[in-house]
Amino acid sequence: MKNRFSIGTMSKLHNVPIQTLRYYDKIGLFKPIVIDSNTGYRYYSTEQFEQLHTINYLKNLGIPLKSIKLQLETRDKEYFLNLLKKESEITERRIKELQLIKTRFENRIDEIEQAIRGHKLESVTTKFFPERKILLLEEPIYSEVELELALRKLENTSNITSSIFIGKVGLTVSKNNIERMKFNEYNSIFIILEESIKSELVTSLKAGKYACIYYSGDHSVSSKYYKMLLDYISKEEYKVIGDAVERTIINQFISKSKEDYLTEIQIPIG
Asked: What pLDDT, on a 0 to 100 scale, did the predictor assign at position 205?
């Protein structure tokens, strides 16, 4: 049979699975030029090669089969141009989303690596931090249960997803509570932002110098390290000028060993 190619041959020539060609036939996207009435075999011709190339090209660009089918039926240049423009815009949005995800990965990797390798445990240092944008919910927190409920409230109020705040949650201890030595009474929960979000809860941690300490453990053993920070602040003749920031960087979801838990406390000083 001249200029006739079986579905198996078409599959090998164009690197398209046989099941895909059958599906294209079923939805009317790419039908064989003839079907043998005796055997039911599908046959295609060279005139259809370019059509299949076009389908593969548009499909690889991410264009839905429904839109490809409409283009092949209408063969309208304006529709084709708009189709490409629309998909280009979608791709641009995806690139921005992936870039943001990449930034989150890089920030989290950098933070954990610095915490593990770059800082000595139970040693007070001073750092200068630039302004950090945060989502802040002012609410007293005295337990792990209240912490989780406050985080859900912050999440729901701001209409954000867990992908935004995993690894970026922190608590604050008020300046007043620090002076009263009540280190386990938190006055707010916050999320450090890596992207712009519209919410009335958006504020910032002020830029400035902080006395900082890393320690092995979680919030439950923080009192010892607040006292170490306050001793250092007094010795160096600094003053506490704002609320303390407390973040657990490595917790039970990152390591099953409690010895690996890692928390940092930052107290603004002046």
From this structure: 94
